[in-house]
Amino acid sequence: MESTHACYFLQFLCIILVLVTFPSMLPTTLASDFSIKEATIQDLQLAFKRNQLTSRQLVEFYLNQIKIQNPVLKGVLEVNPDALAHADRADHERRTKAPGSLSGLHGIPILVKDNTATKDKLNTTAGSFALLGSVVPRDAGVVTKLREAGAIILGKATLSEWSHYRSNEAPNGWSARGGQGKNPYTLDEPCGSSSGSAISVAANLVSVSLGTETDGSILCPSSFNSVVGIKPTVGLTSRAGVVPISPRQDTVGPICRTVSDAAYVLETIAGIDTYDNATIEASKYIPKGGYAQFLKKDGLRGKRLGVVRQFYEFGGDTLLDETFKLHLKTLRQRGAILVDNLKIDNELIGDQSEEIALNFEFKLSLNAYLKDLVTSPVKSLADVIAFNKKHPKLEKIEYGQDLMLQAEKTNGIGKSEKQALLNMTRSSQNGFEKLMKRNKLDAVVTPFSSFSSILAIGGYPGVNVPAGYEKGVPFGICFGGLKGSEPKLIEIAYSFEQATLIRKPPPLRKLEV
Ligand SMILES: *[C@@H]1O[C@H](CO)[C@@H](O)[C@H](O)[C@H]1NC(C)=O
Ligand SMILES: *[C@@H]1O[C@H](CO)[C@@H](O)[C@H](O)[C@H]1NC(C)=O
Ligand SMILES: *[C@@H]1O[C@H](CO)[C@@H](O)[C@H](O)[C@H]1NC(C)=O
């Protein structure tokens, strides 16, 4: 019954997709054997090479998809008015430069989260009207690297406003400027704060995107929207020019449809940036030859994976329980050694250390970010709070601003702040690091993003891969490891992804506006 329905439904969708996507492309019809939808970076580069596709056609496709789907999904906050011109430039370069001299991301459209500065016609506002009209001094470090690689900045992705550091009450995926972002599978909860980045790649509004994470903001929306997210080791990618929460926990990473796309984006954005000195120390983790070499189908062979049962809570949901049992079996069948029934001594449960630290770090780092702007309607956290009060409708003051108010009350690093930082360092060392080393683990595997706080507090990397759909709601599996373990995590994630191939594009609805 269900599968018959699915067949009719799919045919219906195809017709709609064709009608909806191709009118604007009639003068430049694509070779019939190539479809942009779900295409990977490698597929796109091959299509460029075979003259089946140009960057202009690709950008036109996405602009059209954004026009059709974004009024409902609200994954995209702004479209770059120069995107087509940049596509033309990429097409010209491809025709005139030596084959093989262009980077993997050359001519590929990418969205960056709206907390990531671009020195162009796009605004950088963290979703807030308080930053509308601000002028950034320069591109964010990661944007500089994207432009050097020839990627096309297609626009800004929506987010939970201020990366969810305004208020606990604000809904995930909501910002005053971007509205309520929606999960394309359920038209409901997208998780945050890099909601728009995940929504947009999931719904094929762009090829790839960047998100940022302080605690869960890449891993959680990736899990909810059935995409791959890499939360890199803190410092592996530059945070310069990113509206901050905490220099100790903030990190910028790829959100893409596949592990291979995420690896290509990561190798483009990782590296030293003199505007973020943490990148100097972390550059020792970057492998010679980049991350793509770790896309190995047999990448699970011999890997020791820790199963930490306290993160396998399914609230009595037997289907989820069964699914993860199957996934663990798959990991074993692909050659991984599972070290089961592990426990992490998490000294921070019920402790306010992270909250204490983020509060003072947010105030210090946001004030520094605002001070560095060329012009801005707000020059300090206190100004932002006043702006929200002064524009209660525009900024939906009913969502409150408790996190900002708490942060504003802090006054630098005192005794309790030092204690909080110490507690977190100690907890990471006695907890996660000890577990990894004692059991000689390559990674820990958990459902969803249930492990993200452990990874966040210690600055450790994690990768989310699509793991299934329950009643149409996507969920992911997460692999986390010690600092600099991205090569191993990519091997593991890619091998799992290729063994399961779970991701499906969201159902294309007739989206009513
Ligand atoms: C940036 O914001 C201004 C003011 O609202 C707006 O006029 C402009 O179109 C925005 N830029 C883009 C690229 O959307
Ligand atoms: C980075 O470190 C150098 C050398 O210690 C220092 O001069 C510079 O101001 C630092 N830059 C930033 C952005 O902190
Ligand atoms: C940190 O650890 C100390 C000593 O174990 C404890 O008293 C304190 O409550 C912890 N939390 C914070 C936020 O300092």
UniProtKB/TrEMBL annotation:
Annotated protein name in UniProt: Uncharacterized protein
Lineage: Eukaryota, Viridiplantae, Streptophyta, Embryophyta, Tracheophyta
